């Protein structure tokens, strides 16, 4: 059984976080980018991951062709083998970085979800408190005198200075 590629992991992570297939999410990210900027960021990063994954596949195939069993590479092909190995390593590192970026976007979405609900909770609590349905505070009620408002004409002003 082949292991899941980084692209497969990213796709699964995005689909799980937003609860829809990747094709639908890609369309949403393009049509309505302002509604969910985190989705747009995740899809944009996934697109870069697709390019990096394709690059890694090309370099891996080239490396396998140059090092296939029974094939003795010529002297000038040794540089190609080294270059392909380095390019494969770079593409793999880029893919890993893109996967981590997608993971951080998903984590940011999860962290922002409770914060988005918090203002609604506070508004509900304030409405209940204003309506008088809030439970009375424990302890005796204190009868404090309320300071009276000052009644009288305002102090004379000197007017605008020029």
Biggest β-sheet: count, sense, barrel?
Answer: none
Q: Give the averaged pLDDT, no decimals.
A: 82
Give me the number of helical elements: 4
Please provide the ordered H/E string of secondary-structure elements.
Answer: HHHH
* Cα-to-Cα separation, first versus last residue: 88 Å
Shape: elongated
Strand content: under 5%
Query: Helices and strands: which structural class?
Result: mainly alpha
**How much helicity do the residues have?**
55-70%
Strand tally: 0
Poorly predicted spans: none
Gyration radius, rounded: 32 Å
What would you note in describing this structure?
This protein has four helices and no strands. It has helices at residues 6-18, 22-31, 37-66, 77-131. The model has no long low-confidence stretch (mean pLDDT 82).
Summarize the topology.
Layout: H1 6-18, H2 22-31, H3 37-66, H4 77-131
Helix pairs in contact: 1-3, 1-4, 2-3, 3-4
Short description:
By secondary structure, the chain is mostly helical. The chain has helices spanning 6-18, 22-31, 37-66, 77-131.
Structural features:
single chain, mainly alpha, elongated
């Amino acid at each position: 059984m082949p292991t899941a590629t980084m692209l497969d992991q990213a796709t699964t992570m995005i689909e799980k976080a937003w609860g829809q297939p990747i094709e639908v999410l890609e369309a949403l990210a393009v049509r309505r980018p302002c509604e969910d900027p985190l989705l747009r960021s995740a899809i944009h990063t996934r697109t870069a991951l697709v390019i990096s994954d394709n690059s890694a596949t090309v370099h891996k195939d080239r490396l396998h062709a140059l090092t296939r069993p029974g094939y003795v590479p010529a002297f000038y092909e040794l540089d190609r083998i080294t270059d392909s190995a380095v390019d494969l390593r770079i593409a793999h590192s880029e893919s890993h970085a893109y996967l981590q970026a997608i993971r951080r976007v998903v984590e940011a979405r999860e962290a922002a979800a409770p914060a988005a609900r918090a203002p609604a909770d506070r508004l509900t609590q304030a409405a209940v408190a204003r309506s008088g349905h809030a439970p009375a505070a424990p302890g005796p009620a204190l009868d404090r005198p309320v300071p009276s408002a000052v009644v009288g004409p305002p102090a004379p002003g000197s007017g605008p200075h020029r």
